[in-house]
């Protein structure tokens, strides 16, 4: 019978299971992976990717997407691209302004080992530029972003929050790091950043989850500039230490084909191709002051974070600082 299998398959009379491609991630990508200090008072911890889908409905213009996969999973999320593409919002069942907030928005607090339960809240994406030059992105997911307060008013709350560090390697040796911060961020040499062993430390802003190289206050009124005092402040401290590698899936990304390949056949990759928004749209008629509102739209996912970078920064100018201070 086995001799006939190829012929039956060719005629469409036999279903032959396919084996997903997988890749090997260099061990140094994990050896040098950042550790994240979550703020001691932050109510919104790392969150599970599938839980985000379980608690939301894909919508376009505040109406459920007709023909959307059910149930929606990380293996079929990309199918929404044909049903609304970038206009699709993963809209929470309770609504962004729900009070009290549902428990799923608060994520999972890491334990003493640095693991946030059994959730998947991190995606490690490796981009090989050739000649030994590799960028490793460490994407962190939170179900909710709580914005900053200015003059007693809160701005920038949104459902779904993607932040990241990136490490640039040359022949397995870390050269520089990027810390995402709201609309911009900062870059440092590897030698400049604080470490635990050889793993860089990243300090996560209270509620906003913006990443900083040091603890303390951080003004981000002007994107890319980080001062200890100012008008719009983030706060970081050594609250709870999270090891994102313990809650991560790993992939490579080929810029020439825009294909993500997982490190294991059982790791879902389709969700990385989703073109929509990981949260609610900004509510209609949401009041704003100077163009800023309390509740705003959620973010796009990792594929929109300039994975094929020439510089350590996603845009110019790009200054790689050799020291840790509040600076451009």
Automatic annotation (TrEMBL):
It holds the Pfam family Vps62. Coiled coil: none annotated. Transmembrane segments: none annotated. Keywords: Signal. Residues 1-21 form the signal peptide. This is Vacuolar protein sorting-associated protein 62. It comes from Penicillium diatomitis.
């Amino acid at each position: 019978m086995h001799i006939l299998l190829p012929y039956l398959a060719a005629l469409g009379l036999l279903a032959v299971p396919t084996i997903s491609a997988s890749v090997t991630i260099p061990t140094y990508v994990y050896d040098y992976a950042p550790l994240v200090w979550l703020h001691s008072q932050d109510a919104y911890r790392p969150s599970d990717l599938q839980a985000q889908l379980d608690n939301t409905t894909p919508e376009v213009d505040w109406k459920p997407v007709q023909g959307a996969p059910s149930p929606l999973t990380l293996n079929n999320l990309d199918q929404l691209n044909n049903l609304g593409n970038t206009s699709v919002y993963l809209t929470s069942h309770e609504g962004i302004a729900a009070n009290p907030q549902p428990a799923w928005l608060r994520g999972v607090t890491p334990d003493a080992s640095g693991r946030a339960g059994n959730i998947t809240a991190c995606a490690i994406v490796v981009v090989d530029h050739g000649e030994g030059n590799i960028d490793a992105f460490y994407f962190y997911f939170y179900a909710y972003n709580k914005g900053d307060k200015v003059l007693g008013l809160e701005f920038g709350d949104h459902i779904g929050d993607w932040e990241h560090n990136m490490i640039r390697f040359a022949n397995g040796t870390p050269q520089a790091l990027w810390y995402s911060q709201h609309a911009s961020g900062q870059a440092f040499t590897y030698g400049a950043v604080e470490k635990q062993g050889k793993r860089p430390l990243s300090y996560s802003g209270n509620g906003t989850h913006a990443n900083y190289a040091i603890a303390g206050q951080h003004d981000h009124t002007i994107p890319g500039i980080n001062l200890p005092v100012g008008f719009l402040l983030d706060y970081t401290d050594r609250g709870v230490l999270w090891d994102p590698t313990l809650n991560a899936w790993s992939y490579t990304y080929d810029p020439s084909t825009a294909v993500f390949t997982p490190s294991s056949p059982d790791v879902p990759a389709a969700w990385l191709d989703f073109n929509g928004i990981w949260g609610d749209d900004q509510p209609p008629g949401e009041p704003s002051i100077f163009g800023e509102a309390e509740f705003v739209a959620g973010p796009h996912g990792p594929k929109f974070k300039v994975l094929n970078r020439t510089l350590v920064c996603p845009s110019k100018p790009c200054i790689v600082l050799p020291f840790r201070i509040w600076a451009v």
